[in-house]
Design a protein that fits this description.
Layout (H helix, E strand, L loop, with lengths): L3 E10 L5 H10 L5 E2 L12 E2 L13 H4 L4 H17 L5 H6 E6 L5 H13 L9 H5 L3 H10 L5 E4 L5 H15 L4 E8 L4 H10 L22 E9 H7 L5 E10 L9 H15 L6 E5 L6 H15 L8 E2 L2 H4 L6 H15 L1 E2 L22 E2 L4 E8 L3 E8 L3
Parallel strand pairs: 4-5, 4-6, 9-10, 9-13
Antiparallel strand pairs: 1-7, 1-8, 2-3, 6-7, 8-14, 11-12, 13-14
Length: 403
């Protein structure tokens, strides 16, 4: 089996419009959470979110093409463009045929769908935008990426709620490692800031009325985010031969299902996924030097994930740095795993562990080193990136620094 290198990264999020912006904001402990501007929140219990503020399609797409692409898919293409440029990919007919695209999205084009529903149910109109279906489909990001670069190899989308893009990256990693494909674009995107879906999240009573404080005793819930992140994966030997920068390696991937509850997390299920990733990577738990936690900031998730980390790492858990970057870029649902994988990669590459922002006081039930509020210099060899979804579908990526 082949070693798999990450040679390209792209991102757009509440922390900036590029992967470099994203990494710099994480290092600075910058929080991208603020008042929601794109949707009227006067009838909602929560007012804050992690938006791509001031976003316009115009620097990226002409008006005609933008009319075909929902905001979430625009984010996927923008991140993919940056990742491909970063990797210095030179497209040939053979590479286009042997490259893969695997994206993740939880809710797809909800903004387009919401507009259509308002036209029909609220305004009594008898028709909606003729491109409503292709704009709302969850695979639109993968489809537009394939058209952007002329990629004709395997392309598909995974939708496993908040684990979607972690599952996508993991599947792409296995495809490259096994030789099924010679290059993969993998990641995810999401744009959930429309009135209907915000009201649906409000009804779940898991969104914080203020900000996201993962693992802090006074946490009050999650904060929704948006954006996209994409990675270019290729065999390490090919990357070395091309002479391109290698950000890090993916060395393992693990999955599990809780098989217990549709919304309540399971420590046992999370632990199984982490152990599966370590087993796939042939890593000893003691060798892991950082965990990018799922860390939603809800009472149930943070306690459950803390218990899972203790179960997997034993005594090592007491000294293992763990942080939740959702405290800065929000919970981007189907894009969360990709953004957090990128955060873990930059930590390995740059030797800076991102903090858990907005942290106020320790919670005895979350007795971990959560890197409170300030990033930390540390040369780490191996890291895990955790993603745990509603429905009990878990995905964990194991990453290694490339020296």
């Amino acid at each position: 089996m082949r070693r798999v290198a990450i040679t390209g990264m792209g991102a757009i999020s509440a922390l900036g419009r590029t992967a470099a912006d994203f990494a710099a904001a994480l290092c600075a402990g910058q929080c991208g959470i603020g008042p929601i501007e794109s949707t009227d929140t006067s009838q909602m219990r929560f007012k804050n979110g992690a938006e791509v503020r001031g976003y316009s399609h115009q620097p990226y797409f002409d008006d005609r093409r933008a009319d075909f692409i929902d905001r979430f898919a625009q984010f996927a293409v923008i991140a993919a463009r940056e990742a491909v440029t970063d990797a210095g990919v030179v497209w040939t007919p053979e590479l286009r045929e042997n490259a893969a695209i695997v994206t993740g999205s939880c809710v797809g084009g909800q903004s387009t769908e919401d507009i259509g529903f308002q036209e029909v149910y609220k305004r009594g109109q008898n028709r909606v935008h003729p491109l409503t279906i292709p704009k709302t489909m969850a695979n639109a990001g993968a489809s537009h990426i394939s058209m952007e670069f002329g990629i004709t190899g395997p392309s598909f989308t995974i939708s496993t709620a908040c684990s979607s893009s972690a599952h996508a990256i993991g599947q792409a990693f296995w495809m490259v490692r096994s030789g099924v494909t010679d290059l993969a674009l993998a990641g995810g995107s999401e744009a959930p800031f429309s009135f209907g879906i915000l009201k649906a999240w409000e009804a779940m009573r898991v969104v914080s009325p203020e900000t996201c404080r993962p693992f802090s005793r006074d946490r009050k819930g999650m904060i929704l985010g948006e954006g996209g992140a994409m990675l270019v994966l290729e065999p390490l030997e090919a990357a070395v031969a091309r002479g391109v920068r290698i950000h890090a390696e993916i060395v393992g991937f693990g999955m599990s299902a809780d098989a217990s509850h549709i919304t309540q997390p399971s420590a046992e299920g999370a632990a199984r996924a982490m152990r599966a990733a370590l087993r796939d990577a042939r890593l000893d738990p003691q060798s892991v030097g950082y965990v990018n936690a799922h860390g939603t900031g809800t009472m149930a998730n943070d306690c459950s994930e803390s218990a899972a980390i203790h179960a997997v790492f034993g005594a090592h858990a007491a000294e293992l740095p763990v942080s939740s970057t959702k405290s800065m870029h929000g919970h981007a649902l189907g894009a969360a795993g990709a953004l957090e994988c990128l955060a873990a990669v930059t930590a390995l590459r740059d030797g800076v562990l991102p903090p858990t922002a907005n942290f106020n006081e320790p919670d005895p039930e979350c007795d971990l080193d959560v890197i409170p509020n300030r990033s930390r210099r540390a040369e780490v060899e191996f890291a895990l990136s955790n993603s745990f979804a509603f429905g009990g579908l878990n995905a964990v990526l194991a990453l290694a620094a490339y020296r």
